[in-house]
Amino acid sequence: MQVTVLGSGSPLPDPLRAGPSTLVRTTAGDLLFDCGRGVLMRAAAAGSAAGAFLAVFLTHLHSDHVTDLNDIFTMRWVTSLAPNPLLVFGPVGTADLMQATEAMLEPDIGYRLAHHDDLTWHPSSEVTEVEQGVIFTSGSVRVVAPSDHAPVHPTVAFRVEDGDQSVVIAGDTKPCPGLDELCADAGVLVHTVVRRDLIEQIGLPRLTDVLDYHSSVPEAAQTAARNGVRTLVLTHLVPAPAAGTEQQWLDQAEAHFQGNVVLASDLLVIDAAT
Fold this sequence. Notes:
The chain is built from ten helices and 14 strands.
């Protein structure tokens, strides 16, 4: 099993970092977790595409994690030679989001149906709203548990198991029992992090507000250590690391976690077997 960080950025546009998105390549196929800004551009660079996703999994419905859902929905439709519904799994509210997305695209759908004689079907999706338990099986098992990103509610994290390999996608969350449950002995944990020290130095209220519903670098490292994780991937980096400061992020994590620590960049690839 292989993990590719498609987007390591945050809501703030960054020329080097696409919006939050992670591709997990399993023996069953490609699984996409979240779909932030620029996801299909990064997927193309990784050798994947909207039509290749076995399913899309949303950790929560914050705009930076779903910005390009409409692009995936459209491109899957127009690049398929037959009806190919998009499978979407996410927290309660995901079905409403997909319905609103399709309604927003109604003019474009009409234009394309009128123009392409061989495109005779509408785009479609199959949505499953999830809370906890096994949610999807296709050669490998997907498990979901609640996370804690209050006041954004509900939010979920995901564990992918493929044979004896496992990957956890935490999404945006504080340390919580649900995430601990998923992380037990995981091979890879992909975890959103913020730098509390830098954000407090900046001091802007709208930025310091994020501290009460994200994990700091030490907190993510403590989650990994507490649950026997092998490799911790720090992503959704707020604020984005300035050139030459990357080691500071690693040092904060390594003070609490003795396993492998990786600072994400777009198109970084991690082998879950190592």
